[in-house]
Amino acid sequence: MKKMFVGGLPLESTEDTVTEMFNEYGKVRSIKLASDVFTGKCKGFGFVEMEGHEARAAIAALNGKIVGDKSLKVQFEEPRKGGKRGGRR
User: Fold this and answer.
1) pLDDT in tens, 3-45
2) Can you tell me whether residue 60 is helix, strand or coil?
3) Which CATH architecture has domain 2-76?
4) Residues 6 or more apart from 26 whose CB is under 8 A from it?
């Protein structure tokens, strides 16, 4: 299973519209769009999980594709560096 970062999404994007876009390349296992707390609208990015070979096909086809007036950025999610997040010192 590979997790991909998807950026440059139109603000009117929903989980259904993004799933439809990625389903062309394989089965979407999970999807999580970042949304505004107050309006509930998409913030323009999210994460999609697919099997490895399907994820590579989706990246090859969708990275740089123009959707609306924006260019999509689709890439494998990079693990965060720096260890633990948050907490007290």
Assistant:
1) 999 999 999 999 999 999 999 999 999 999 999 999 999 999 9
2) helix
3) 2-Layer Sandwich (3.30)
4) 50, 51, 53, 54, 55, 57, 58
